[in-house]
Structure formats: C-alpha cells, structure tokens
Write a structure and sequence with these properties.
By secondary structure, the protein is mainly β. It has helices at residues 174-180, 210-228; strands at 3-5, 11-19, 25-26, 30-34, 42-50, 60-70, 75-78, 82-85, 93-94, 98-109, 118-131, 141-145, 148-152, 158-164, 166-171, 190-204. The strands form three sheets. Strands 1, 2, 3, 9, 11, 14 and 16 form a seven-stranded antiparallel beta sheet that branches. It starts with a strand and ends with a helix.
Amino acid sequence: MGLWIGSLSAATTLTVTNASGTGATSSVGSVVADNGSLASGQMSYTISGLTLDGTGSADDSIMLTFSISAAIGSPALSFTSEFGDSGNSSNQINSTESLTFSFASGSVTLGGGGSGGLGVGFDGFSTVDPNQISTTGNEGFQLTVNGNTTAHNSTAPIDLGGLYSSFTVAGITAAQFNTLFSSSSGLDSLFTVADYDFQVTVGSVPEPSRTMLATVALGTVLLHRRRKI
C-alpha cells in the first residue's frame, strides 16, 4: 500500500502529474513547488485547497518532500524546470551520471480550527518523462525501477506499469548505446528528467487504544526487570 507515516483509517488519494522543478498538477487542490533545497538533494511540493478533516472547506494542505540523489555532482535544474546534474556545464545528465528519485517525508497542515492527527503516505511513482534526447534516436539512457533496468532512446513518457517507491535514470556511453540498440552511430548521453507522476494518500490516524498502551507499558516494565536480574 505504499510508504506510510502513521496508521491510516479513512483515506483520500491524490494523483499528481507533471511534477517538475517548478510546478505540478494535482487531481484535487493546487500545487506550489519549492526547489530551494535541490542542490542539497531535496525537492518539495505543497498541495493546498484540500478538505481533509471535515472542518472548514478547502483550507487544508499537505507538504511532500522528495529525495533526489546524484552519483556525481548534485541535482540541478536544467532548461528552467527539468531535473539534471551539476556535474556538467549544461546541467543535464551525461554518460557518467545518474539521478535517483525517492520519497522522503510528508506532513499535513489543517486550517479552520481543525484538529486531530492525519497521516500522509506515498503510494509510488507511476510515470517518468525524459527530455532533451537527440531527435535522431542515437542517444539514450537506462531506467531502473524495482531492480529492473530498461534502455530507452526517446522522449516519450514512460509508464512504470504500477506504483514504485523510487526510480533511477542513468546515462550511457556511445559504445553502450550501440550494444543496447544494435547500432553503430550511438552518442554519449545528454538528457534530463522533465517531470514525473506519483500518487499520495492522506487519512486519519487513530488514537492508540488503551489495550495497546497497556501492552507497551507492560513490555517496558518486563524489560526493566530483566535488566535488573
């Protein structure tokens, strides 16, 4: 069911598309992107205009932070809004570089006097949209999802065929391209990730039951006694 923060009961699922370095679109609410910490490996999106707690209307929001790690250099924006690597002058991803995208954290802010715990969870990435690949089709890259690596040589969006917690894009050399695509005219990679799609779920976190609290307390007492023996 994805990566959860808290144990959720009733839940609301949001689909976020075209998440780039400067914006995104949510199935509910509006999105503001924050790339201020991208060089340190973090990219954030705040989705506002949500009604999550039944108090007020469209006055709640969630903040999602993603980790973007670079094997060489650091994550950077290329062509204004696309994801690349600072290890080369164009801030694109070259044949020696790679970027890994994963979910880092999520939080909920309630407005209108709302109260009560809410949990936010990341269900997974669903689509990756590469860009800036040679239009002649002799330039490519590799995409790794859930331990499976595939080679691509176009800017067509890639449907991951499910929801996954992370993905990695990596450049390839001209020689690797020739082997992967049975070619003799390959070029070293130079590309970007234009954007990606993902799904997130938000729901209420039940208060711990008295039975659960009693069990935890009993376990603590028993552990304390064992340490004394």
